Amino acid sequence: MASRPPVADSDVADEAVRSTCDDASICKRFATSQGYWTDPYIQYFVRQMGERKAPEINRGYYARVQGMSHLLDAFLKRTQCDCQVVNLGAGLDTTFWRLKVCLNYKLIVVFLYHFCRTKPPLSKPLIETHSADSLLLDGHNLDSDRYCIIGADLRDISSLEEKLRKFQIITELPTLFLSECVLVYMTPEQSSRLVHWVANTFHTAMFINYEQVNMADRFGQVMIENLQSRQCNLAGVDVCQSLDSQERFLLTGWESVNALDMMAVYGLLPQEDISRIERLEFLDEKELLHQLLQHYSICWAVKDTLSLGISQIGFLP
């Protein structure tokens, strides 16, 4: 009997990173089941909700989803939906189905094809202008007028650029890049090349990045150790030491950059909805929520060649 070929350490690490997508999706489905927000599509991507999640975890995901959605919706409003959206490392993300009215929306992802083909609520928006058979280009890519799935290694810029151009991305069109816990798994050099390529390639663009912050303290070190025990190495953690670290975007061609930790974002979300979600579950140790939210952040960088006012996007007090 032939033995299995050895698995490279890098392959194991990459697979461990990809598994975090499943973890996040399970947490999101559980939070939606508790009424934190509505997502009728996540049920098609996550069959089981797993064990009950702590209230601070549910509130943390609520802040993450609402914060990212707030900036995304503001960009769509400023561009009047005449734009592209590229979701880097999107995993089992359901944003497209919420935004299916935006015809130029594009998404970079590897894992969604099977679900799109076999679940009518997901496939219907894709086949309004295509036959079902015309959607698949190969085993890792799917294309329609509204939605595009591309399998790509974000550390390989030349390959990424080639695939995006193959799917007819328009560099002159305002383009929003979304990144949730993606750059932190790349080395600072790799992530800098990526964000520099975006700024250098797209005339008018916005880059929204959600990831860890304040990782030098004990809470942050425990987070790092827990991920390392799962063979998830935060290769980019050196640029997650503080919000000031996000000035790296200014060094890679972006005109402006803003960053807030998630505790600040949580406090700037609509207070009526905050009051609603805080009634869903009793939270005994509020300090746990504060610690959690202080160790994640949203950063948004802007390049506004067309003077659309996207540099004014943010969170109002």
Describe this structure in words.
- This protein is of the alpha/beta class and 317 residues long.
- It has one domain: Vaccinia Virus protein VP39 (Rossmann fold), CATH 3.40.50.
- It has eleven helices and eight strands.
- The strands form two sheets. A five-stranded mixed sheet has the order 1-5-6-8-7, sandwiched between helices. Strands 2-3-4 form a three-stranded antiparallel sheet, with no helix packed on it.
- A hairpin with a 4-residue loop joins β3 (141-143) and β4 (148-149).
- α2 (55-79) packs across α11 (286-293) and α9 (262-268) crosses α11 (286-293).
- The chain is globular.
- Residues 1-9, 108-118 and 129-134 have low confidence and may be disordered.
Topology diagram in text:
Elements: H1 9-33, H2 55-79, E1 84-88, H3 95-98, H4 113-118, H5 120-123, E2 136-138, E3 141-143, E4 148-149, H6 157-166, E5 175-180, H7 188-201, E6 204-212, H8 218-228, E7 256-261, H9 262-268, H10 271-278, H11 286-293, E8 296-304
Parallel strand pairs: 1-5, 5-6
Antiparallel strand pairs: 2-3, 3-4, 6-8, 7-8
Helix pairs in contact: 1-2, 2-11, 9-11
